[in-house]
Request: fold
Amino acid sequence: MRLRSEAPARSGRRTAGRAAVVNHAVACCEAGQVTAGRAAHMAGMPRQAFEALLTRRKVWLHYDEADLQSDLATLRGLFSR
Reply:
């Protein structure tokens, strides 16, 4: 009697497919095509977990001087109240 199981093959495809989706989300985020929040959603991950993944892969979020100035203005507004 021969038993055949296809579970490992399907599981492997599912894992490879998930990795491809996550890699695509990382690439889109790195290229600045989507925000980190949107990329995390694409990857099906919580934002903090996705940002930790970006850190492990040494992918830095795009943050320029205009972003810094905007953040500083927001902080000034919050603390001047």
